[in-house]
Amino acid sequence: MTNRAQSSNIGLVLLLALTITGAGVVVGLGSSALADVQEQTSIDRAEHAMTMLDARTAVVGLGEGSVQTVRLGRGDGDYAVESESGWLRIEHANYTDGETEEIYNASLGSVSYRRSGTTVAYQGGGVWRQGNGGTSMVSPPEFHYRGTTLTLPVLRIRSTDAASGDTTATIRRSDELTRVFPNESDTYDATAEPYENPVRNGTASVTVHSRYYEGWADYFRTRTTGNVSVDDDERTATVVLETTSIVGAFPLPEKDGSVQVRGVAGDHSVTDFETSIKIGNGNGNGNGGGTANNLYVSFYVEEGDRAYEAAVALPTGIGNYCKNGPDDVDLRMDVYYHDESTSEGVHRWTDDDISSISGPVQLACEDGNPVIQIDFTSTAQDLTYGSSSVDEDTAIDWDALDDGPDPNPTTFAHDGDDGENTTYDYGDDQNLRILTRHYLAMFGPDFKLRVHHGPGNSGTARIDVADSGGVLRYDTIEDGSYITYLHVTENNVTVALD
């Protein structure tokens, strides 16, 4: 009886001990879970408050109001306003002869909330969350890319402050909005040309140095198709956007030099392609009575498997062309195209009796000097399919590329604005505008249009590059990897914490 009673008492004690221990564990786990919930709630509240701060700062910074207030709320974390945290830089690289212009470089500043290992921060018009899992975007920054236009109002925090607990932020405008680009009062260092749209040549890049650079990089990747890179050591994110290059007048490049063509829209996008090429006598001066014998000039493209060339040749025996009339002589023009990825041979188009004194392809005279004028987008010049007549050394060795039978017939299997599809047999005619627009469409959106020229088997005529040039216009692509218009402003605010 006694042993049995003792066993019962021991069991009761053990049961009570287990109950107390279990209750302690439950209380401990519950307290930890409660603390986690409280911390998450505090961080969620901070995210909401920072999003409100983002919206109110945009109102003030973009000039729609002078003062705004936001209650950031209460919590166990700390608030801080910093004026020198992070910076943003805009560069225009290779805008001329390899030169790079730093268009803008200034600090961004930030307003942050920190609790334990998590930070929620406003910077550059966006809200970012940083913790053990890295950086994520809560709301997007003021970086707007649509079509080929980048609009970037740089919202800068120009004050410092700190607070904790129940905190209210007061946002005030600091200085007036400053226009960065376009801005006619600022000029490129190397060219003295004003900061103006459209942005031509080279690339434009935006670099952000920040604690939250990973979030900036993710945003750049999702909102543009530009080239995005990060530097973990420097804590920077960069997006590079190509310009749509030259649209309009261009100087004639040196022999085998090129005009960079970028951002050409699909289909038949070339609207205007004309050249005016003055003939010199080899010493850089106009011919002024020298010979124009046996000279040829061509424009050509080689990209991947595809090649194109349009060549115009002058005849022999024309002597001092401009002093003698000029007399009407026959010019010759060829257009060639080949795609090595197909089984077809070279496309050849020609006209061997073009009048030199009128029309879209002619040998004009200006101040006594011969000038080769070519309108590649004219409908008034026809060429015949199936043969060639320019026997000088063209830029591309078309006979070497002729590894298959010349296509007869061939079909322009390209939907454009010129009434295609169209099938051509030997002897069929087509105007120069359609040929130019069709073949150049094979190379978009980026390619180099090169120039080639020289005397044939005899003659001393030379191209006077300095006094020659052309016009090239085309519809540009609407794509996130290109930039045509850049709109940048600096918008300063202060934030006080109470």
Please, could you describe this protein's structure?
InterPro entries: DUF7289, DUF7308. Residues 261-475 form the DUF7308 domain. Residues 401-420 are annotated as: Disordered. This is DUF7308 domain-containing protein. There is one protein chain. The protein has an eight-stranded antiparallel beta sheet, with helices on one face. It has two domains: 40-244 and 483-497, no CATH class; 248-474, no CATH class. The model is unreliable at 25-30 and 282-290 (pLDDT under 50). 17% of the residues lie in helices and 45% in strands. The chain has 498 residues and is an alpha+beta fold. It contains four helices and 36 strands. It starts with a helix and ends with a strand. The longest helix has 60 residues, at 2-61. It is elongated, with a radius of gyration of 35 Å.
